[in-house]
Recover the amino acids of this structure.
């Protein structure tokens, strides 16, 4: 990357080109062969051109594999959560057998022993609240921030996270509530050290260190998979990091659905103030993650912005301003946000078009893709949206035909990425082969 002084005066387009160059020619990567290097560059170029609303050689594909590599290799999700060798073998087998345009590593497979050690309460997982053979996780929603705690969070998010949120969401860290506050008034470190000296707090930190050593083993396995895939010529597309809409950070993680609905009516100003507080934190975290990655694409799952959760007026008041501020913060750093519009975003199309041209990838779950192409086609790259139900239950012939129709509607002129409406964890693997076949047969630009 360029030095800080030069970076400071670059436009967002120049910063992005710098990140694209790094993506296209990753430093310190030894490809296994010249053929692997050429294949890698072809795959990355395909995505870059789609992002820039140009015509690549053909429509690129993001296989919506989710946790399917585990079952494809004959393992359950629970098994690969606890056996990192099986985890690595499963994901490498998948990439070798499917030869996708992009490779998503197993970074979203939680390390089972780590979340057991800390008494993680935010999810159920196979064998822990879910059947042993469950192919997914289940989020456990709750009001982890109470209705009268907005000011505590706004004044010091770090302190709230450490002394309030963690004790409520991980049983091993309940003693963190006894830590001295994280604030500038506490200028003498002895007071903080004294709070750590409580036996239950020391035990919590010992658990944290134990979990850190275990997660190091998991990270080594995940890194090994990603490194091997990269050296064999498979590009990471959405591996640049993760971010989200500040409203979702507040609604999903802190207040819960019931809590946030009440707050939108009872204390809307506090909701908006908290969202404003979150924007720079979300951007800073995502940028930091991206610095440790090769891909500049930031995944952004959006949960509560669709029409079934809030009205258009509420979207424009509570959701879009914070989300747009995060998007612009990432764009200005030369990153490529990829908001995944979960649910129905058709009423939002005109609103979300208000972004710099060719700066984001809008990924849709449920959408009339012809309308999306009409409204956004000259503004943003779009991706989607072969139904997950089709990929799980249907036949390769039906899937291939669905892909052909999407390519026919969304492909003209470039700026389209073929993918599923959502990731899958089970189903007929041949349906994913059908997606690749459709792009190669129907998605070629002449």
């Amino acid at each position: 990357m360029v030095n800080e002084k030069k970076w400071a005066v670059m436009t967002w387009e120049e910063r992005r080109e710098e990140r694209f160059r790094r993506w296209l020619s990753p430093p310190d990567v030894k490809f296994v062969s010249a053929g692997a290097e050429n294949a890698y560059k072809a795959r990355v170029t395909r995505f870059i051109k789609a992002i820039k609303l140009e015509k690549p050689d053909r429509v690129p594909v993001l296989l919506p594999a989710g946790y399917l590599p585990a079952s494809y290799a004959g393992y359950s999700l629970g098994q690969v959560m606890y056996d990192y060798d099986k985890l690595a073998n499963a994901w490498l087998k998948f990439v070798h057998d499917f030869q996708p345009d992009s490779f998503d590593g197993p970074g979203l497979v939680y390390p089972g022993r780590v979340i057991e050690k800390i008494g993680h309460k935010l999810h159920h997982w196979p064998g822990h609240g879910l059947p042993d053979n469950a192919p997914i996780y289940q989020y456990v929603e709750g009001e982890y921030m109470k209705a009268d705690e907005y000011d505590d969070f706004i004044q010091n998010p770090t302190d709230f996270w450490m002394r309030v949120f963690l004790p409520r969401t991980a049983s091993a860290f309940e003693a963190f509530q006894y830590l001295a506050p994280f604030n500038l008034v506490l200028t003498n470190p002895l007071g903080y050290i004294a709070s750590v000296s409580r036996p239950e707090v020391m035990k919590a930190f010992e658990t944290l260190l134990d979990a850190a050593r275990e997660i190091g083993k998991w990270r080594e396995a995940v890194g090994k998979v990603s490194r091997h895939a990269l050296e064999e010529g498979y590009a990471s597309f959405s591996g640049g990091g993760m971010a989200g809409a500040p409203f979702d950070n507040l609604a999903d993680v802190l207040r819960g659905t019931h809590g946030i609905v009440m707050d939108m009516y009872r204390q809307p100003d506090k909701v908006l103030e908290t969202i404003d507080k979150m924007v720079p934190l979300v951007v800073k975290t995502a940028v930091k993650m991206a610095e440790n990655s090769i891909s500049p694409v930031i995944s952004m799952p959006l949960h509560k912005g669709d029409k079934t959760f809030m009205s258009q007026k509420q979207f424009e008041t509570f959701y879009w301003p914070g989300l747009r501020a995060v998007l612009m913060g990432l764009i200005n750093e030369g990153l490529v946000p990829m908001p995944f519009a979960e649910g129905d975003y058709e009423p939002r199309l005109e609103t979300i078009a208000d972004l710099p041209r060719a700066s984001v990838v809008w990924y849709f779950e449920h959408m009339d893709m012809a309308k999306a192409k009409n409204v956004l086609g000259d503004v943003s790259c779009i991706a989607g949206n072969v139904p997950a139900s089709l990929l799980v239950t249907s036949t390769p012939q039906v899937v291939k035909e669905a892909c052909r129709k999407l390519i026919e509607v969304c492909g003209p002129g470039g700026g389209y990425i073929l993918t599923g409406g959502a990731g899958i964890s089970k189903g007929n693997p041949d349906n994913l082969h059908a997606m690749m076949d459709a792009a190669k047969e129907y998605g070629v630009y002449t």
Summary: The first strand starts at residue 61 and ends at 62. The chain has two domains: 1-65+234-446, 80-99+104-233.
